[in-house]
Amino acid sequence: MFTGIVEELGEITAVENLPDASRFRLRGPVVTEGAKHGDSIAVNGVCLTVVEHEGDEFTADVMAETLKRSSLGALTVGSRVNLERPTSVGARLGGHIVQGHVDGTGTIVAREPSENWEIVTVSLPAELARYVVEKGSITVDGVSLTVVDAGPDFFTISLIPTTLALTTLGIKRPGDPVNLEVDIIAKYVERLLGDRVQQQEATK
After folding, report:
1. Sign of the torsion angle spanned by Cα atoms 93, 26, 10, 77
2. 74 Cβ contact partners less than 8 Å away, ≥ 6 residues apart
3. CB burial of residue 179 (10 Å; 0-12, 13-18, 19+)
4. What pLDDT is stored for residue 90 in this prediction?
5. What does this protein do (predicted)?
6. Nearest CA to 167 among 82, 70, 76?
């Protein structure tokens, strides 16, 4: 489990395209400290498994399903990525519960800079709109954020200087894709309420 608090901006150093997957080599001095084979590291919000680790770089395989559901397929050598290690039991939950299981992708629609923050509008797939609410939580490229406004096919987020400086959201431009993970609690509530309604209908 992750919390959406990015630890560092990493970099793609190599990409190997396989028949039904891709193999990435990534540089991240912070997240590779003490890393070993089989560990999990979130890359732009996608939970990947460390295959190899040498120095400040690690290798991870990305399956076809992950490439299909996320924006990782658009990464090339030199691309900057958000990196986060899993949280430990008893640690402070600085963001919100993040699984690293991307629900879909959105696109940066617009950026409105101001003196102390920046409002960013992101497109939202229709099937995810019901999980996104004003002042609720959402993960964008692995960053835990609070929704400012929620529409039928978009939402807005407010980025503080720290987020702009330390994550990829500071360099993304209109038209760039981003990975989205909605609040897992919302999905569980929907499922539980849906089952209850079905049970009530069945007993009528």
Report:
1. negative
2. 177
3. buried
4. 74
5. Catalyzes the dismutation of two molecules of 6,7-dimethyl-8-ribityllumazine, resulting in the formation of riboflavin and 5-amino-6-(D-ribitylamino)uracil.
6. 82
List Cα–Cα distances, 28 to 55, 107, 141, 149, 199, in angstroms.
9, 25, 16, 33, 50
Q: What is the pLDDT of residues 2-28, one digit of tens each?
A: 999 999 999 999 999 888 899 999 999
- Please count the residues of the chain: 204
**Which residue type does 25 have?**
R
Above 60 in pLDDT, residue 200? no
List, in sequence order, the alpha helices (H) in the chain: 64-69, 161-166, 184-202
Q: What is the DSSP string of 64-122?
A: HHHHHHSSGGG--TT-EEEEEPPPPTTS---S--B-S---EEEEEEEEEE-SS-EEEEE
Q: Per residue in 120-162, pLDDT tens?
A: 999 999 999 999 999 999 999 999 999 999 999 999 999 999 9
Q: Which of 145, 152, 148, 104 is CA-nearest to residue 129?
A: 152
